[in-house]
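Question thread 4412

I'm putting together a teaching handout and wanted feedback from people who do this every day. The idea is simple: show students a protein as raw sequence, then show them the structure tokens that encode its fold, then repeat with a second protein so they can compare. Below is the first pair exactly as I plan to print it.
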Amino acid sequence: MLHHLLSDFGSLWVNLNNDEVHYCKIVLDEIFGRNNFLCDISWEKRCPPILDAREFGHVLDHILVYRKTRLFERNQLPLTEEQFRKYRNPDNDPRGPWKAVDYTCNFTALQCPERFYAVTHPKTGEKIYPEKNRVWAALPAEHRKNMQENRLWWGEDGMDHFPVQKSFLYAVHQEMIPMSLWRYEFAGTNQDAKEENIRLFGSNMFTTPKPEKLIRAILNIATKPNDLVLDAFLGSGTTAAAAHKMGRRWIGIEMGNQAYTHCKVRLDKVIDGTDPGGITGTEKWQGGGSYTFCELARPILNHDTFGKPVIDKAYHAVKLATAVALHEGFFFRPNKDCFWKQAVKNRNSYLLVTTSHVTAGYLHPIHAALKKGESLTVVCKSFDPEAERLHKRIVIARIPPELLAQCAASDSHQDTDIVHPPAYRPD
């Protein structure tokens, strides 16, 4: 399904441990084709290593990378602070910081005799030859130009036997090719992710979070601003949070209750600008944007015992509303002109029963329509914590599970079409 949804310009990134990665690669090779396998990245997820491991201390996870087609183009990565620190300017060269690079290359004198020649030491006048199994990187004419332009470095005192070449920061593309080993300084660790989760959720921490630095590295390589990112197992919302801060569009799917307890809570903080952790600082994120929270309804079609598709009644709306009204002490009297007045108590107290997730945005227009002296009880499947205390005249409660169970249609007792029964072929 993910292969079908993926753009021809897109890529798939799958994070697995040692137990599953080899089996998964066989499956993905079959779906994507071995020619579309790009890399098995080793991510240093734990640092320092485990000291009390019984057999081996597992410090790495795997990230399998596949492209949909050859149209996928990966990006370069920006240089890290550590790489920038390698550029210095000990001789105050007016061209700015530089780093030393080898002035020889991986060819022998037999392979490249034109590169096996003597250079003159600028201080001693000595004629210096390279090793026969590793000749000069520059041809003689290029070497003379390097000497004239002060592109060679002979050490602090100018007395090193072999020179190195200056590689100036201004002249290089300040980007690097992604490598297959991601150290913890580059992509973060599980411990970083846990600390981010504690700041976000306190004691209600997600069990297997990923650090935002890891997702940032992936998105920097695989996407550009405004690209669409899909995480089919959103977990605690890390991918959506990182993508939002990096200016990517995103879709997150999560079947567990953490969709409410973690993902929504986290993304609300990202939008409010109250999430200080993860890549907030490096991306200079200050809040903004929006998202839509959707719930997947039950399938509209099921199958009867003969395999014939029948409509699933799901929740019988009238039966459910009637049961909740009775449970809450209301009289079920739906108002045809006002959808939220499903039941009434004491003339000005009303009841609304809904299987939707209730948010502040859901309640605002209802509160605006409440007349003086009226109050409303909203009974729903789930709701945002801030919605519970938003309006003094609106009380929110959850539908009792036993009522939901009693009012749900049974998948195993669907009505069969007896007018057009299934035809049986004679033996």
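The second pair follows. I'd like the answer to focus on this one:
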Amino acid sequence: MAVVKRNQNSDNNSPKKAIVSKISKTTPIKSVNSQKQIKSTTLSKSTKNKINRTLLNKSHLDIELENAKNKVKENPNDPFYHNLLGVAYKNKLMYIQAIKAYEKALELDSNFVLAYYNLAIVYKEQSKNEKAIEYYKKAISLNPNFTSALINLGNVYYSIGKIDLAIECYKKVIEIDPMDAISYKNLGVAYLALGRLDKSLIYFEEAIRYEPSDQETQKFMGMAHRKRRKLRSKIKDIYEAIKSDPGNLNLRNELALIYFQTGFIKNSLEEYKVILKMNPKDINAREKISLIEKEIEEENHKEPL
């Protein structure tokens, strides 16, 4: 399953990114030169408004960049303004210049958290995931409670298939801010991608609790409910088939996995133990037993959400 990020500007008050269905990047300013070939009378009102907004936005970004350059000239040794210049370049998709500006800010102040954070955003937008991870980690090492950096780091891990590491990041955010709807939502998506329908539903419900109007979360929760119902509907038939053929390991593995995915954890554990007893060389069953036992122990020592 792919992930979605809330659009984010790499400024000092940058909002958090959420994941849900697809990756969205800052939309580059498109050229409107082609309008010269079209008579203005042929343009619809909505098209004219879109062109005007594009031109206005482009003008705003140019002014923002010019102002940032002037601030750097006035304050050449102030890392804040070099970071501000990096933001202006990044907003115009001038990534090389943005990186140089952020690096200059760090040259002036090696503990400037926002510069590391903004560098990570630039590298992520260029799909340079390892560099993005490096700089998000640096920002977090300087500010362990930097929830935006933790969420974004989790999103990078998710995008490269390291879902367990993504989950760790989102859970850290919830430890810091137990009402962070984005992290609950992200955890729901991550567990849904792992096929853990029971856990995904728990976190989607928490996300909706803190953000009741989030239709995207509601959509994914509905998907998880449907998948869980479909899997649970198979349990009775598989169970009956095993009664007729108790030595069928394929059936037992299928039942154990469905139990695991749909929330019947203890049933799953017992079934995997039977499988391992029947086939002591079954590595998957051994790993699942270890995983489930660890999970049960953690649940027993964890306070409810």
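Top answer:
Good format. For the second protein you could add a caption like this: The two ends are 25 Å apart (CA to CA). The first helix runs from residue 45 to 74.
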